[in-house]
UniProtKB/TrEMBL annotation:
<keyword id="KW-0804">Transcription</keyword>
<feature type="modified residue" description="4-aspartylphosphate">
    <location>
        <position position="52"/>
    </location>
</feature>
<keyword id="KW-0902">Two-component regulatory system</keyword>
<keyword id="KW-0597">Phosphoprotein</keyword>
<dbReference type="InterPro" id="IPR036388">
    <property type="entry name" value="WH-like_DNA-bd_sf"/>
</dbReference>
<feature type="domain" description="OmpR/PhoB-type">
    <location>
        <begin position="122"/>
        <end position="217"/>
    </location>
</feature>
<feature type="domain" description="Response regulatory">
    <location>
        <begin position="3"/>
        <end position="115"/>
    </location>
</feature>
<protein>
    <submittedName>
        <fullName>DNA-binding response OmpR family regulator</fullName>
    </submittedName>
</protein>
<dbReference type="InterPro" id="IPR001867">
    <property type="entry name" value="OmpR/PhoB-type_DNA-bd"/>
</dbReference>
<dbReference type="GO" id="GO:0003677">
    <property type="term" value="F:DNA binding"/>
</dbReference>
<keyword id="KW-0238">DNA-binding</keyword>
<dbReference type="InterPro" id="IPR011006">
    <property type="entry name" value="CheY-like_superfamily"/>
</dbReference>
<dbReference type="InterPro" id="IPR001789">
    <property type="entry name" value="Sig_transdc_resp-reg_receiver"/>
</dbReference>
<dbReference type="Pfam" id="PF00486">
    <property type="entry name" value="Trans_reg_C"/>
</dbReference>
<dbReference type="Pfam" id="PF00072">
    <property type="entry name" value="Response_reg"/>
</dbReference>
<feature type="DNA-binding region" description="OmpR/PhoB-type">
    <location>
        <begin position="122"/>
        <end position="217"/>
    </location>
</feature>
<dbReference type="InterPro" id="IPR039420">
    <property type="entry name" value="WalR-like"/>
</dbReference>
Amino acid sequence: MAKILIVDDERAINDLIAVHLKMVGHEYIQLYSGDQVSDVLHANKIDLVILDVMLPGKDGFEVISEIVKRNVPVIYLTARDSLADKVHGLEIGAEDYIAKPFEAVELIARIHVILRRNQRENNEIILDHIVVDLDKHTVMVQGQRIDMTNKEFQLLELLIQNKNIALSRERIVERVWGFDFYGDTRTVDVHIQKLRKKLNWDNQIKTVYKYGYRLEV
């Protein structure tokens, strides 16, 4: 997985991001001002930076030039949510701009999109006895290829990318079937049962009562 630099002077938010990154398997470094960013980038191979704008020392708009010149993608995560700030942030090199307050699940999803786009994330994932190749859309269980529909694979990928995080049925429908899906959330239950059977993951894919599902690894 990736090594991600979190730069936010609000310790509660910084720690919240760190907890969720750890849950899905990423490494992280936490900073609370913009002045130390250059030193950390010099000493570490950073795959992505989550950057606040309003920071002590150098602010997020100042420090981004030091990051993008190293070809490291940046997500702004800030309370400055005006359109002008968002446009400015994207124009000076950010890959994404997320306003606070934010949903942790959405942040993790956007991180994974950017990591894949920049080809910094290993596209072969190994969990227990299962090997999932995100590029080839293949799933191998103990050396045997498992046939999956496109929706089953997308659901599996979503669960893996958000492992140890509870996903609501509504969120799963939105991410896998799209906003224009006219069915109901029971289709999620059906596909979950298929994944459990095909992967022998009865104990790994947990049902979260009256909410959704969580992949525990």
